[in-house]
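@channel anyone free to eyeball this complex?
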Amino acid sequence: MRIYFATGNPHKVKEAELILKDLEGIEIEAVDIPYPEIQGTLEEVSEFGVKYLYRKIKKPVFVEDSGFFIEVLKGFPGTYSRYVQETIGNRGILKLMEDFKGEERRAYFKSVVGYCDEEGVRLFKGVVRGWVSYEIRSKGYGFAYDSIFIPEGENRTFAEMTTEEKSRISHRRRALEAFKDYLKKKLSR
Ligand code: IMP
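replying in thread with the prediction:
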């Protein structure tokens, strides 16, 4: 069975391939088909997007929508993550966080995978909690907010970890694992 992953983000493709590669009986193919991203929660964005895509290609398809949420900023940038990254970027975020120390720097990444086939839509969620670092730290891995996010239980930012290391604990890993479990059960029905 072939399942399409609609995304234009090569980082997401690499991470999803790592996580889903051992799924027997299922082939994942990345396709860059644009779909409307409505303004709403990650769940609403994924559901709307994947339904649109299924109507268009009529093949099993999934999307992944994610965001970076800073608790003291009431979840900002959240569903505006992409726009905020492209405008004020990590320097801008660190500036907004200047007066916050320790536990006040709590943040999380959240991912929602939306899958649609002839049976309808299913959503799978994953969260990774941690902190906003005090400075930008990167070894050249990762993308976007990875260089300012330190996951719980770590001293390094996501951008100081290899993709393999990040993908063991990431929000995307958790959402994709739930999706993988669902696909395994579906295949054995
Ligand atoms: P979207 O799911 O492609 O709409 O992504 C939203 C935005 O969230 C991305 O453009 C990134 O700025 C941010 N983001 C999502 N996942 C990650 C991640 O794993 N690392 C760093 N930034 C992320």
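from a first look: Residues 2-188 form a domain with the Maf protein fold (CATH 3.90.950.10).
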